[in-house]
Design a protein that fits this description.
The chain is built from four helices and 21 strands. It has one domain. By secondary structure, it is an alpha+beta fold. A hairpin with a 2-residue loop joins strand 6 and strand 7. The protein starts with a helix and ends with a strand.
């Protein structure tokens, strides 16, 4: 009996020591889930979809469709912006210097996007425009992100919900300095903190005098504040690259310590996971992309090669690769072990 008790105690100690080693280096995420029912527009000719942080279009006909960018507008929280901007406003937007007097002035050739005729079920959608330009950036309780300098109702609701979410998240570990709790809110349209949409003009002829104008808009129906980390895919080694078979790498996985607000297509996600970092004392927070990119190239090879090219190769930029990314909701009660907040998104990982 005594030997059995000793053996049981030893097994418990081993189990405790193993679980104690489990650690997750994490950061905080503000997850914005847009209403799926309103993220798609479709008529007999064209299908528009908002997903993966962008607007995408599909041609349902056997003829080429042209989208006239000069007649298209993007909407964010009730404010509209043309797809093509010109003049002083455009120079400020693009951060160009005094030499950029003609930047943003489109020609007849580049103000159209053509969408190829439908040739089968495997045809890919055409990317039209990025939809997250106004989401990422610095937010403040004293300065409105609006170009007009006034807080909109969306701004006020966003700041109010952030106050609630971070306060409740902190309650999960009152003695700690970081936010480890998962908090969520489901929102109706008139309660939403963010609304995005577009008006698109399309035709079957560039020279047409009659263009069909269609609109699509959606809003954040669910907002989640929770820990997250990035699981990077394993790098292919030299031996793995041998031969001529396809060597397709796995996507990076954004692990979110929360329950999914709804079921969605992983390749057409209407959910944006923002990297969140705030300063409560200053009343500011920053939203950044969680997309991972790495520069490819050999530093020593470039250094050595530059000796024979009079330094030319030193100024050639390294190739930057952006990893395909999917989102995975692990669950609000999932066991991530000991949580350790890190300052860099590239340092997020889980150790077993």
């Amino acid at each position: 009996m005594k030997k059995t008790s000793i053996l049981f105690a030893l097994l418990c100690l081993v189990a405790v020591s193993v679980s104690a080693k489990t650690k997750t280096d994490y950061r905080n995420a503000l997850v914005l889930a847009y209403s799926q029912a309103n993220s798609v527009y479709e008529d007999e000719n064209i299908k528009l979809e908002i997903y993966d942080e962008g607007l995408w279009a599909s041609n349902k006909t056997k003829k080429t469709i042209f989208i006239d960018l000069s007649q298209c507008f993007k909407f964010h929280n009730g404010q509209s912006t043309p797809f093509i901007e010109t003049g002083e406003r455009d120079k400020k937007t693009k951060g160009e210097n005094k030499k950029a007097s003609k930047v943003g002035v489109s020609t007849k050739d580049d103000q159209y996007i053509s969408i190829a005729p439908s040739i089968g079920q495997s045809q890919n959608e055409t990317f039209i425009i990025q939809m997250t330009n106004y989401i990422y950036g610095k937010y403040s309780t004293t300065e409105s992100p609006s170009p007009y300098g006034e807080f909109t109702e969306y701004d006020k609701r966003l700041l109010g919900i952030i106050e609630e979410l971070v306060s409740e998240s902190k309650e999960a570990d009152p003695k700690g300095k970081e936010y480890v709790g998962t908090v969520s809110r489901h929102l109706l349209e008139d309660e939403s903190i963010n609304n995005i949409g577009v008006t698109v003009a399309y035709s079957f002829n560039k020279k047409s005098e009659e263009w069909t104008n269609v609109s699509i808009s959606t809003w954040v129906s669910d907002v989640i504040f929770s820990p997250y980390y990035i699981e990077m895919p394993p790098e292919l080694k030299k031996k793995d690259k041998r031969g001529f078979g396809v060597k397709e790498s796995s996507p990076a996985v954004v692990h979110i310590k929360a329950d999914s607000p709804f079921e969605f297509d992983a390749d057409k996600s209407p959910i944006i996971v923002c990297d969140w970092e705030g300063n409560y004392k200053k009343g500011t927070f920053v939203l950044k992309s969680t997309r991972i990119s790495k520069k490819k190239g050999n530093f020593f090879g470039r250094l050595f090669g530059g000796l024979f090219t009079f330094g030319t190769t030193w100024f050639v930029p390294l190739t930057e690769v952006t990893y395909r990314q999917i989102q995975h909701f692990d669950g609000a009660t999932s066991d991530w072990g000991k949580l350790n907040f890190v300052s860099d998104i590239m340092k997020t990982e889980q150790d077993d």
